[in-house]
Write a structure and sequence with these properties.
heterodimer; A: mainly alpha; MetI-like fold; 2 domains; B: mainly alpha; 3-stranded antiparallel beta sheet; 67% helix
Chain lengths: 315, 414
């Protein structure tokens, strides 16, 4: 005991301390390097893409057909890289997903935080978490093999034409995946609303549901909105469900019964074939990746700021 | 203002909405699991056909006094085919014989070879073996030869007739499908298995665990125990939180551009897969480790400082051991996420058809979720069952990992 405390003040010990500090510091700085790496590699490759395709065409063009012909004189030899159909497709599927997950998630959260007994809560919360823990490739399989054919069948029975790879099927399943994200954030937010507000409302004679609708929810609304932004970011960046259940061809449509493609689907399609690393096809994937990264980053930053601010407000 | 009765009715309605939302979410989960288990259990069962194989010397083309290694060179395919022909009494033309051979699986001859190699003394006699059937027979048999099965099957009327004859002679049975657990990917559903993909996943997870656990825990220790509260650490924190929410496919793009494009590491290797997964899980590990470190009572640190320990000694001798269960729990949960992740692996080329389990980190490899993706894409109907089976294997692994985390937490909470 005495020896160790003596040696701890030995000059070597100080050196070791400093060394360990440096190692620890560089480990935490690695997180910065990852971010820099992502941004740098995306921007670098995207810049090379924008040398051959104008950034204006990419952002506002409405025709997406990235296949390049074998001979230079063929029709469509250069490929068209207007990404608007992909942005619209992504937005369409995310909207469907949100229409499923927002009401289910928020109502589940309301019930769990305001009505449910502790026993029910302790069973339901982990079960909801299971939905979040299922790998997305499993959701994709489910969407493609079970939901899509069922929707298509149902559609033809009632006289609607539902594409086999409809945005509806992918969006529905994605919505189920996002339910736990929305419900757990909303649950936290609703629980954070101080009881004094509830008691005040009940004291004035409001019923429980009136209190929730007129007092608790309006107070919790900004926080829930932040959570929904995070959910949108998740839906936009989701890959496997749409790769397996959404279409490959770029259609510019707002009808959820049609097949649409998304940004992430096209990244996978462009990069999983056999091709040169330098072709504008592969570089286009990085441009799409950059767009995806920027959008999700903005959504995440705003969403988490709102949620954080909300929590601090009642602390 | 509506009357009291109406208000109370609204009360009940609102409560029911909440309950319904939970019920709908739960029924999604139930529907999900039931349909996956319902489709997937078939992958663990296979149909076998009993064939009398003539292993006399003349038939298998060996001479008296053959060496044991000669047994590996015998053409077992013709032996199997002869055994099949002997099952059907009638004389068959070329085309019909070929239809008959299609009842038996693509791997049957290798199955027979392995059995003969294991028991060389069988040579010289006629022996009955159960050999794996083809996927069409397998599907038809498992569907219970109903009318629906007859509509879906690719078997011809003649083949169905043969099948019924074999069935009535008790030459058809179902058994546990070991091939599914021990085999690797194959174009033929009846010999496809998840072993190769499991080994690939295991390699990638190993790399991921080493990297993300080491770096992640050290980074958390720095941020929680050493870093001064200033702009720089705040920036680091925001950065890590944002990284945790970046779409996983972006990490794949990073891996493709930097690990493959810049450093020239091998494509499709589980080493690169593990590195990309490590980048992805790093923020999760850092965040959960920080929570675990925060939970250690400040009195522990003060006591250590009080008896003269330095900061490094305090942290590594006292705080980290106490936080270890929490750190491990977080790491396991991060690993479970990494195990189910597919998109970044597609980006670095882990989508190739790999027929063997990898033996080193730099060999082309597959991974369990990628195998699910590949099989789900296959047009052959028998692969739908295999896909759901592979999903079940994946879910079992995830369940075990999460169980481990829960047990760990319970054990140390006391």
């Amino acid at each position: 005991m005495t020896t160790s405390s003596l040696s701890s003040r030995h000059p070597n010990q100080l050196l070791v301390e400093r060394l360990i500090r440096t190692i620890l510091f560089s480990c935490s700085a690695l997180a910065i390097f990852i971010t820099i790496g992502i941004v740098a590699s995306l921007i670098f490759e995207a810049m090379r893409f924008f040398q051959s395709v104008s950034i204006f065409e990419f952002l506002f063009g409405t025709e997406w057909s990235p296949q390049t012909a074998l001979r230079a004189d063929q029709v469509g030899a250069s490929g068209r890289f207007g990404a608007v159909p992909l942005f619209v497709g992504t937005a369409l599927i995310s909207t469907v997903a949100l229409c499923v997950s927002a009401p289910l998630g928020i109502f589940s959260a309301i019930y769990l935080s305001e009505y449910a007994s502790d026993t029910l809560r302790s069973y339901v919360k982990p079960l909801l978490e299971i939905l979040a823990g299922i790998p997305t490739v499993v959701y994709g399989f489910f969407a493609a093999i079970v939901i899509a054919p069922a929707l298509s069948d149902f559609g033809s029975r009632i006289g609607l034409e539902v594409a086999y790879e409809s945005a509806l099927a992918a969006g529905l399943v994605m919505g189920v995946m996002i339910i736990p994200l929305i419900s757990s954030i909303s649950d936290d937010i609703i629980t954070a609303v101080p009881d004094s507000l509830r008691e005040g409302s009940r004291g004035l004679g409001a019923t429980k549901s009136e209190t929730i609708r007129r007092v608790v929810l309006p107070a919790a609304l900004p926080g829930i909105a932040g959570g929904i932004l995070l959910a949108i970011s998740r839906a936009v960046g989701e890959t496997m469900i749409v790769v397996m259940a959404a279409g490959l061809a770029a259609n510019l449509t707002f009808n959820p019964l049609n097949a649409v493609t998304t940004v992430t689907v096209q990244i996978v399609v462009l990069l999983t074939g056999d091709q040169e690393f330098d072709s504008s096809k592969t570089l286009a994937a990085f441009a799409l990746g950059l767009a995806l990264f920027c959008v999700t980053m903005v959504l995440n930053v705003i969403g988490s700021q709102i949620v954080k601010k909300f929590r601090e407000q009642y602390d | 203002m509506p009357g009291v009765v109406e208000r109370h009715r609204g009360e009940e309605r609102f409560r029911r909405f909440g309950l319904a939302a939970i019920a709908v979410s739960m029924s999604f989960l139930a529907f999900f699991l039931i349909s996956i288990i319902g489709t997937g259990y078939g992958a663990f069962i296979q149909t076998a056909i009993k064939i009398d194989v003539d292993l006399t010397l003349l038939e298998i083309g060996l001479e008296e006094g053959f060496a044991t290694e000669d047994l590996a060179k015998v053409r077992y395919r013709s032996v199997v085919r002869a055994g099949m022909r002997a099952l059907i009494p009638e004389d068959l033309g070329r085309r019909e014989s070929r239809a008959l051979y299609r009842l038996i699986g693509a791997g049957a001859e290798f199955e027979l070879r392995d059995k003969v190699l294991a028991q060389p003394d069988l040579v010289g006699s006629v022996v009955s073996f159960w050999l794996t059937s083809s996927d069409d027979v397998d599907l038809y048999n498992k569907a219970g030869s109903t009318e629906a099965a007859e509509q879906q099957t690719r078997l011809t009327a003649k083949q169905i007739e043969w099948y019924s004859e074999l069935k009535s002679n008790d030459r058809i049975k179902t058994r546990f499908n070991w091939i599914f657990l021990t085999g690797s990917d194959s174009r033929d559903p009846e010999v496809a298995g998840v072993w190769g993909a499991t080994v690939g996943s295991f390699f990638a997870l190993g790399v991921c665990l080493l990297l993300s656990c080491f770096v992640g825990v050290l980074a958390a220790i720095y941020l929680e125990e050493f870093a001064a509260r200033n702009r720089w650490t705040q920036f680091l924190e925001v950065n890590i939180n944002n990284l945790a929410a970046v779409p996983s496919i972006t990490f794949g793009l990073l891996g493709l551009a930097i690990f493959l494009g810049f450093f020239g590491l091998p494509r499709s290797a589980s080493l690169v897969g593990g590195m990309v997964l490590a980048l992805m899980t790093l923020p999760t590990v850092i965040i959960s480790s920080r929570v675990a470190l925060q939970a250690v009572a400040p009195s522990i640190r003060e006591a250590a400082f009080g008896i003269g320990a330095s900061r490094v000694q305090t942290v590594f001798h006292h705080v980290v051991p106490l936080a270890m269960p929490g750190i491990l729990t977080g790491t396991i949960i991060g690993m479970a996420r990494a195990l189910g992740e597919t998109a970044p692996l597609l980006m670095i080329g882990m989508v190739a058809f790999i027929a063997d389990a990898p033996t080193s980190l730099t060999q082309p490899a597959s991974a369990l979720p990628v195998q699910v993706y590949l099989w789900a894409d296959s047009p052959e109907r028998a692969f739908a069952e295999k896909t759901a089976g592979a999903i079940l294997v994946l879910l079992v692994f995830l369940l075990l990992m999460n169980l481990m985390a829960v047990i760990l937490r319970r054990k140390f909470e006391k």
